[in-house]
From TrEMBL:
InterPro entries: Beta-prop_Nup120_160, Nucleoporin_Nup160, NUP160_hel_plant. It comes from the Eukaryota. Keywords: Nucleus, Transport. Residues 149-214 form the NUP160 helical domain. This is Uncharacterized protein. It comes from Malus domestica. Residues 11-123 form the Nucleoporin Nup120/160 beta-propeller domain.
Length: 216
């Protein structure tokens, strides 16, 4: 199990680092310069996503003192902290756009534009709901003859929200990586089994250490 932890941690950070809105060439290049990685403009812009991943991974692995999840996590924190600072410098806020008709607004930054809009109901379901049962009911259209189905759906949504709150965001990130990572680092079935054990027994540092010792 320990052999799987390091690549999973790196895969989670890498995937999110290259997401639209998070990935920024200028900020990334400035961060890589701190690690003495120098490219010409043409060479840097010719790097593909896979090539960038390999470069960043090589830095993280080189910085790691030992091959364990704690040291890798510290290395990623060390890398992401200056990246965030460089991102903020490269994306200084310059102006604001408002679109009252569509209920959205945009932030004009130094090197990019960010657009925000009101969350749709489906987005609220995906991201989780922290409100009361009444909030859940309002997400479903009330129609005659569908009261029973509505009650079942509300109970299911409430159950999903409770499970999501107990497991936290880290669990969903790890489960996502188990589905999309290639080559397969850890199976979705194994992740599901461990998440179910956490739901049954609760999560704590002592329980986590017991699970690790079983597979060390």
């Amino acid at each position: 199990m320990l052999d799987h932890i390091v690549p999973v941690v790196s895969s989670i950070f890498l995937r999110r680092l290259l997401l639209p809105g998070v990935h920024h060439n200028i900020a990334l290049r400035s961060t890589l310069l701190d690690y003495n990685r120098h490219w010409s403009d043409s060479d840097f812009h010719s790097l593909t996503a896979d090539m960038l991943k390999k470069e960043i991974l090589s830095l993280i692995e080189h910085e790691g003192v030992s091959d364990n999840s704690t040291s890798i996590l510290c290395c990623w924190k060390k890398f992401c902290s200056p990246y965030f600072q460089n991102w903020c410098k490269s994306n200084a806020l310059c102006g604001l756009l408002l679109d009252s008709y569509r209920g959205s607004f945009g932030l004009i930054r130094k090197n990019s534009v960010s657009l925000f809009r009101c969350s749709e109901n489906i987005e609220r379901l995906i991201n989780g709901i922290s409100g009361t049962s009444d909030d859940l009911i309002h997400l479903v259209t009330m129609e005659a003859g569908l009261i029973l189905q509505l009650e079942v759906l509300v109970k299911m949504l409430r159950c999903v929200v409770n499970v999501s709150q107990q497991l936290g965001k880290t669990a969903s990130a790890i489960f996502y990586e188990s589905l999309v990572s290639a080559p397969l680092v850890i199976s979705a079935e194994e992740i599901t089994h461990r998440l179910l054990k956490n739901l049954e027994s609760g999560y704590g540092s002592t329980v986590a250490m017991l699970h690790v010792s079983e597979h060390a």
